[in-house]
Amino acid sequence: MYDYMLGGKDNYPADREAARRTFTVLGEDVVRGTVLQNRQFLGRAVRYLAAAEGIRQFLDVGTGLPT
Asked: Which residues of 21-53 are buried (b: 16+ CB within 10 A; e: fewer)?
């Protein structure tokens, strides 16, 4: 669902259907905006930790597929 909500191309029909139902309930603009803000926050947090706190290694738990 996350990939589809971000506008990606690597998702399954079940993901698209569940995402569309979520859009119906919560509003597509709200959901897509929230997912995008989450992705942007992750980038800011990692950049801060690397630059300001000197963290040089990060553990990404999960497959990351497709996003």
From this structure: ebbeeeeeeebbeebeeeeeeeeeeeeeeeeee
The model's confidence at residue 55, banded by pLDDT at 50, 70 and 90, is very high
36 contacts 7 by C-beta, under 8 angstroms: no
**Number of residues that make up the chain:** 67
The tokens 């998702």 sit on which residue? 11
Per-domain boundaries in the chain: 2-51
**What pLDDT score was predicted for residue 66?**
62
Q: Output the six-digit token pair for 21.
A: 């139902």
